[in-house]
Amino acid sequence: MDLIKHNFLNIKNFSISFIAIHFSSLIPIKTIGGSLFDILILPFLFLYFLIGKKNNFGFILLITYSFLFLIVLLNPSNVQIGIKLIWLIRLSIPFLFLKIFKDNKIATTKFDNNEKNIILFTLHCYLLFLCIYSFLSYINILSPKYYDFGFPFYSLGLDTHVFGPVLAYSTLIIFHRLINQPSNFFLKNRFSVNITIFLTFIFSLLTGSRSTFLLYGLYAIYYSFLAIIEKLPLLKNKLSIRKLKLKIFISSLLIIIGLITILFLLLLIYFEINFNDIYSFRRSFNINLNLSEDISRASAFNTMMMIIKNWEMYLLPQPYFIKSVDSGFILFANNFGILAFLLLQIIWISSLIKIKVKNYNNYIKKSYSILLSYKFSSFIVFSSFLYLMVNSPHIMIPRFSVVLLLPIFLDV
Question: What is this structure's pTM?
């Protein structure tokens, strides 16, 4: 009994601490153009990345980061040094991200499979609460009225482009664990888990961020590919188990759809909802295959194509510094130069490569394998790389990256 109580307190304390860390990223500090997270949490994470114990890959990350740090710091521009330093400290987030993923000693925690699911589900419920709060503020049920359906508190809902992908990742994490490693907690609370999955899935689409479609698509492609390359006997063994889980999941979804429909009708009847706000959600489905004419991506796409066509001019960093832009490719190609940006890509991809060294009678043989597995942390590293290449550099934004950091830290 004492052991159960001790484990419960560990789970509770860890979950509350992690939620508090993420919530600090939602409290804006206008004087620094960031959040409370940048003052209270980020300096400690930055120091940990710099002076924490490292394996060989950790040293490579530190050397690469130091190189990029000097490129930006020494590059003459009209931007204040303080702004550059804040930006560079945030740049350490994706490096810390890769360090924890690659370092097995960090990733190995004292939580078992069931406890990990409880922690992940707690974070999921917290994000669902933020969803409901922001949504009710957006449709003018709660005050103040939000400008859009994004993160609450930080920008009055304006950052839908960040909130949508976060909800998509959270939805996929719980869905993935429910299908592959449900554990006792998920089996006992299957209906509640299915409800939260469905709600965050719908809310992620309602944010209007088309990045959610990108992430759901990447997830389907990633795990379909793994299923194909697996051995057929193993696939057949899992198939019978998953069929049963799929039936339970679909039946639960049908019940949830009915409940959501009733709830939505009650909202329309009892509250004054502006239908122009509801109509604006349609931009999630406004997909233009010609990106040069897209409403939100045209400018970034045209700039990206200009850089690619004039690549020789962007081999080295540009004399003007960009603090933020809606494209990871443009941001890093401009501030680091294409050559340094390629180095960062190589480091990111190499985190997915595992080297095995075997000694046969004083003969050393090395073998290489790709760390693409059913672990969701592997998908996070894979998808965040592609996300950075074709979309925005959200990995440097704490309220986005902290959510992704938890599954990697738990090694799930």
Answer: 0.81
